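Continuing the series of single-chain predictions for the mutant panel. This is the parent chain; the variants come on the following pages.
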Amino acid sequence: MRVISKSLNILDYALSLLVRQKLKNLGVFIVFTAVIFLLASFQLFSTALKESAARILTTVPHITVQKMSAGRQIPYNVDYDELLRGIFGIATVKERVWGYYFDEKNGANYTVVGLDQHHISPRLAEVLSWGGLPQRRGDVVIAEPVQESMQLGSRERFSLFRPDLTMKSFKVVGRFSRGSSLVTDDILLMTRQDAADLFAMDQSFITDLLVDVANPTEIDTIAAKISARLPGARVITQNQIHKTYNVVFSWRSGFGSICLLTSLFAFIILSWDKASGMSPEERREMAILKVTGWQTSDIMWLRFCESSVIAFTAFVGGYSLAWLHIVFFDGVLLRPVLLGWSVIRPSFQLAPPFVLHDFLLIAAFSIIPYMVATIVPAWKSAMVRPDSVM
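Parent structure:
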């Protein structure tokens, strides 16, 4: 009890010192909070993007098969019944036409996805906020950003140019929800015949096959069988797409965090300098404490308490501000870094989950270096000789 009481008294004295030297400590606190805020924002933004992608990619087909020539994807005319016959475990195979459509009016690139009406997965209806899926020629499902970029307003009909500059008309029959905006904000979902007509492709050609597997645990095995049966084809699994998203988000987040670490080290140097530069009043106060019976260990513990209060308060403040920045302001400061540049930008709402690994990682990169930087200055202040000061 005596040790606890002594520690509490030292902590109380440390708090009074921080209050009396508020101008000196306020600058350190503000800079430290800002550094932690940026580090935590990058980590939370990346984690939220990964969670959002994992949730949305459940609607992606288990396996996608594309034909390659000279390292590029090309359309092809294929009878999949013959090519994939005999592979046990395949539930369905769907034909798809997809590509990019450049809108010269606003400079936006749309992703056109065309599927057969009877092959459109009912799971896609789960990501719609209004209307239904394309059922006939001319039907299209778009997202709100596409509607805004085309300046449709309340209109349901619009037209796009074919390569020969003739017009093709569409009717909006559904709209993607904001919860799927990470993937669907630039998509025009229509029938396969409409997509082929828009790109002036032969109606018998497709760009890829979408394969659903009866047992998801056998996706990799069936993908290997398809690769063996279709030499030269590119076979992409759902898990590979998920890993690609994770790698992209992790790389961009890591790049930003590394840049911020230089700021953190600069702050550590600043903290070292401020902690080492004791004013004459502070040196005289340390000397008086030693004269009145304080031990070297007590003064070092006092300095440790001061550093701990600043570090943990700044960490809580910076982490909380980062969470508010991501949840309520959609990470507006980091969007250009993590999402890249585009005319159509995802307008999704992020909800970063609490991940203990990320929390401890941010704490380790911020609190520990600061505490280490204050050890030597704390020892120097504890070694002050009362007779030389007084």
